């Protein structure tokens, strides 16, 4: 889509490394330092400005076939280089991403009878480290089955952690904030009774992205990048010395990954910052992913959409047909299209359009949907044409119910059906136990599947938003049509019968789940008491209305849903217009004072027209934010349109308390804005 | 294809069966009698002419979900009826198949808290019994997971058995002939070191079709019919009382079958005969299968073919490209086409035509073949056109290497590629451990797959021959384009490095494997010492040349391969012409004196022109067969063209010893023909 600016600096240092047992590589500014030591075991450690953040941590693998360990190595050689380049994403938080690192590649060979060659590659950035294992093609070792990856992250201290419990099938948990010593995964897992399918691992397992904070004030973020043909890495916590150990999600027979040489693992990503904002600003995970074939994806277009979905969640309508309340009927969908057209919203998602919802969930049933048969009251062709006549497009819904074999064998037909009906975006869903039976949402086979769907969709110029998939690892850099995923507890869970989301949840998501990639969080709820259609419900959306608007800026995504019913959105036409106007692609983004479980504030400048947006969200605390407009261009005057919580706004007591005001500002001026308990603000800053 | 002649006789007897605990139903001629008794457990027993052949055997299920047993029932009602009809197969051993039985349906309900309704249906024929469980739609019970089917077959005596060891993944064993007490499954399984993937179950497990012979001279045959959405039934032998118990093949997580009400199990089939020929003549398994939609399958056409395959087996060529000996090259395949055209052979199978053979097997690798990419030296379009110009068609080869997920997601493209290249028959293969990993060749998911492929192929008017699939259960009645399968140790195993086939093997196959459906046995070898291209080989085809010809008549299949190399076939041009001339569809078939492990002799009359063929095969013994031509039409004179073993023929010492002679016969005359050790004969009897 855009040019990539490259400025490569190669500082190749060829060490005579045979026999050498210690290697060091520092980030370009020298502050992050990685030390590799090869004594009995090969270890790495990471320091920042002389502060050891990762104590010597072992590396390696246990293989199930051949049945050997890759743990004791001799170093055959090493190479070091520096790369300084930048690139332009097809969409994103900034138009130019700096990719500046020093790389150390160790060529290793096992000391055991079976001489297996493995390369260990570290990329050291000023804001962190990425490392992975490469398996070069070699004599006598080609196909192998990983029993476990033995990568450690040895913290050595009882950091504060923002975590969700380890699970092979779901990441839809509320975040916990505790010391590592207080992690209780099974209890945390058991609390969440509203998640469809759970496979807890044990009592000391957490998922990534994992946000840690040291007592000395360091923010450490552990995740992975470029997960394409490998299981998700979960982390087992050893509380004796606060070591986190990789624990890969197994397949049906207990194997972890089937690999062959000429490949590599995903990158293990570590972001290090002395400030929380440094975590939010980091592009390290994207940088560790491969570039896209830009021309091939030139048709990818950011968009906003509404959907026939929430009315089923709140009990107004149903997915299934025979209830008498079938929501996806032609007349009703036309109303959504009319609403979208009125406000310039690009897409209308329709769930429940296809046959199968009468018996779709919970029975590990393979034949559920065929993805090409609409219910009799859903005139898809007519609706698609009606939408297009109004500059709107339908968005397809493919709920697989976890029956992925069924989806794969029907995928070609399903995508062709979309093309035939002029639909170019699909929301996929994986609610249910996976078929192939014994596979998990996070196992290698499923991670291959998600990419398979992305690639097949791209062949037909179709964009994908996935739900209940494994959490992202920056892959939308490589496959830009894989626009966003859910892969966390999203706004939808406000409708869970037992308990919804806490106000702090979103402030933690920004530091954790969102570092992997855009989330289909579905903000945009303007009506918060969810018992309107079903008096038995007690849950509500724990947010102010201003915060809902703020999320469209705070949570970056190239595809964003206004989640609420049109009749609820219609009560605030100006706010809808304001939200629709928010760009989906940015020239630059700067995170202002933020903290996980506190607040997140960001200033973004639109790529298209240079308009600035600043937005913030808060947790359960009311907060005042002083904004400093020094980022504005000097000599110009700007109009600020601010939407913030009213003085008496409160996520529970008065969620709709909002005030909207306009004023002029000049660069260098300051402004105080208010965030209520569970609230937020958003402002648009245009040049006058 | 043909009309179905129906003459239904309904003798509906509605018994006031509530409270009744004993039910009897007899075959139309009264000789086979089934008694159902509902005491503590529900049991069935079977007698023939007052001789109890199946002692009271229990019935039922253990479910994994809901976690209940379906073992103790009350009888809600029963219905009995008699059906007497006949039908015409699209192809087969006879043009009109009699289907005459009495049926008893017991409507059962479990006595336990969870009241589950199950129907038990027995069809009692003069030559045996079929029974199955039906799960009617009902309140409160819909989806369920079978943990085990608890069907017993209680023999109560130490019968002689023709058996292969139980295994979840293969049926490619040589048959053993022992008493039931001497069954040693694990040892038998371990002997067969040439089978690619084996999953033995235990030491007392055998497969079906299982042929038993009682000391009183009864032939009892146990198998199943209409297996479409269920695992293969293997049998566990309890040597205490010689009870065979159903043991279903599990999936990756140990479940057996995922079902929902409105369905039924496959039929459990029992053929009973006082003569071995009665087993061979029985149509019971076909009768238990559902009829085909005849019009839909009107394009299905029996055919003979040769193949580029054996040259790879014997080391003349290779499947893979880079060897310098790639067999599937355009020039070589043209020679096969020329040979086929010269002799009027309809098809030429080409293995090794597509990319992937360099690394295709043994590593549980998912991405192997794409089924649409020929090697550079294989001009598929040109060859297909060349073949068609000579009235020959190419036959496609889809080796999946067990990676069935890969095959399913590419199936549509693969079949479309066939259509685009004017190819209407495919040989599929499943050499390797199954993916989805943890599934087995014989598990429910795979049985669904085989039918899925058959149905998808039928949509494109494609015929299927499958290898390494689960053994057939008469399904080619319902899906006639699923022409034949291997699913046993076929002629190909003569090339196994350690040991090939014994002469007796084929005489047992006729009684076991072949009762389930046509086999792609690939007879037609004229060259028996297999070290011509590879001096290290010691194996050979243990057969005489006459027997190879005889197999085309003895083993009924609508699709038959002449297995050998054209240059070997070309040495016997008259014999090739004789074989090519053998019909693939018959008006009638009569099995003459036969015995498993002895000899099999059959007389068949061609549907097209009334020409008779008689053929026989022998085991390791030399035999003389006296044929009685009383089946010929009186008042006519016939010419017999006989091909038999020469006096000094012998499967090892002189396999090519053959004599061919013509003579006249009249109805009622007799003729003695010779079968050498491991030999056979075949004759054509045409009206003068």
Automatic annotation (TrEMBL), chains A, B:
Names of the cofactor(s): Ca(2+)
MF (Gene Ontology): carbohydrate binding
InterPro entries: Aldolase_TIM, GH, GH-type_carb-bd, GH97_C, GH97_catalytic, GH97_N, Glycosyl_hydrolase_97
Domain Glycosyl-hydrolase 97 C-terminal oligomerisation: 585-685
Keywords: Calcium
Domain Glycosyl-hydrolase 97 catalytic intervals: 309-488
Domain Glycosyl-hydrolase 97 N-terminal: 25-291
Quaternary assembly: Monomer.
Name of protein: Alpha-glucosidase
Native organism: Algoriphagus sanaruensis
């Amino acid at each position: 889509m855009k040019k990539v600016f490259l400025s490569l600096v190669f500082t190749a240092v060829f060490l005579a490394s045979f026999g050498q047992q210690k290697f060091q590589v520092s980030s370009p500014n020298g502050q992050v330092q990685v030390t590799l030591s090869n004594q009995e075991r090969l270890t790495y450690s990471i320091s920042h400005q002389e502060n050891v953040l990762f104590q010597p941590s072992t590396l390696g693998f246990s293989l199930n076939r051949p049945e050997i360990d890759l743990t004791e190595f001799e170093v055959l050689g090493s190479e070091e280089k520096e790369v300084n380049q930048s690139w332009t994403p097809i969409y994103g938080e900034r138009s130019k991403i700096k990719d500046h690192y020093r790389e150390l590649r160790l060529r290793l060979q096992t000391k055991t009878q079976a001489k297996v060659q493995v390369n260990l590659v570290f990329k050291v950035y000023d804001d962190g480290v990425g490392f992975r294992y490469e398996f070069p093609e070699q004599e006598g070792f080609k196909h192998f089955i990983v029993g476990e990856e033995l990568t450690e992250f040895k913290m050595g201290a009882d950091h504060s952690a923002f975590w969700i419990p380890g699970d092979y099938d779901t990441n839809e948990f509320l975040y916990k904030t505790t010391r590592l010593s207080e992690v209780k995964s099974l209890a945390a897992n058991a609390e969440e009774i509203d998640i469809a399918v759970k496979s807890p691992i044990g009592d000391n397992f957490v998922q990534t992205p994992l946000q840690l904070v040291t007592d000395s004030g360091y923010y450490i973020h552990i995740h992975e990048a470029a997960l394409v043909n490998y299981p998700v890495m979960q982390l087992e916590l050893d509380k004796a010395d606060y070591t986190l150990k990789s624990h890969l999600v197994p397949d049906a027979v207990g194997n972890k990954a089937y690999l062959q040489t000429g490949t590599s693992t995903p990158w293990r990503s570590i972001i290090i910052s002395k400030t929380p904002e440094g975590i939010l600003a980091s592009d390290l995970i994207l940088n560790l992913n491969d570039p896209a074939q830009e021309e091939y994806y030139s048709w990818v277009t950011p968009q906003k959409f509404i959907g026939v979905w929430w009315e089923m969640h709140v009990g107004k309508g149903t997915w299934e047909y025979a209830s008498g309340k079938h929501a996806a009927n032609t007349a009703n969908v036309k109303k959504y299209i009319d609403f979208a057209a009125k406000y310039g919203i690009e897409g209308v998602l329709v769930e429940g359009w296809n046959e199968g919802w009468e018996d779709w969930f919970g029975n590990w049933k393979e034949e559920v949907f065929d993805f090409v048969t609409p219910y009799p009251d859903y005139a898809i062709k007519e609706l698609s044409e009606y939408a297009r006549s109004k500059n709107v497009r339908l968005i397809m819904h493919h709920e697989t119910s976890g029956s992925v074999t069924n989806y794969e064998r029907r995928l070609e037909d399903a995508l062709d059906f979309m093309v035939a009906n002029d639909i170019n975006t699909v929301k996929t869903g994986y609610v249910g136990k996976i078929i192939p039976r014994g596979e998990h949402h996070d196992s290698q086979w499923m991670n291959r599947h998600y990419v398979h769907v992305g690639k097949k969709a791209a062949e037909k110029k179709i964009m994908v938003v996935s739900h209940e998939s494994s959490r992202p690892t920056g892959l939308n850099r490589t496959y830009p049509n894989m626009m966003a995923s859910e892969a966390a507890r999203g706004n939808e869970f406000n409708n869970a019968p037992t308990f919804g989301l806490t106000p702090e949840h979103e402030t933690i998501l920004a530091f954790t789940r969102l570092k992997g990639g855009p989330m289909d969080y579905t903000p945009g709820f303007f009506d918060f008491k969810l018992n309107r259609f079903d008096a038995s419900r007690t849950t509500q959306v724990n947010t102010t209305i201003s915060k809902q608007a703020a999320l469209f800026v705070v949570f970056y995504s190239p595809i964003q849903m206004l989640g609420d019913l049109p009749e609820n959105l219609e009560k605030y036409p100006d706010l809808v217009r304001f939200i629709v106007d928010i760009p989906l692609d940015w020239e630059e983004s700067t995170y202002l004072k933020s903290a996980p479980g506190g607040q997140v504030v960001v200033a973004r400048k639109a790529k298209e027209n240079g308009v600035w947006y600043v937005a913030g969200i808060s947790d359960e605390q009311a907060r005042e934010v002083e904004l400093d407009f020094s980022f504005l261009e000097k000599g110009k005057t700007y109009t600020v349109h601010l939407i913030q919580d009213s003085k008496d706004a409160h996520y529970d007591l008065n969620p709709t308390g909002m005030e909207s005001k306009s004023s002029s500002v000049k660069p260098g001026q300051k402004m105080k804005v208010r965030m209520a308990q569970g609230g937020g603000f958003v402002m648009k800053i245009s040049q006058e």
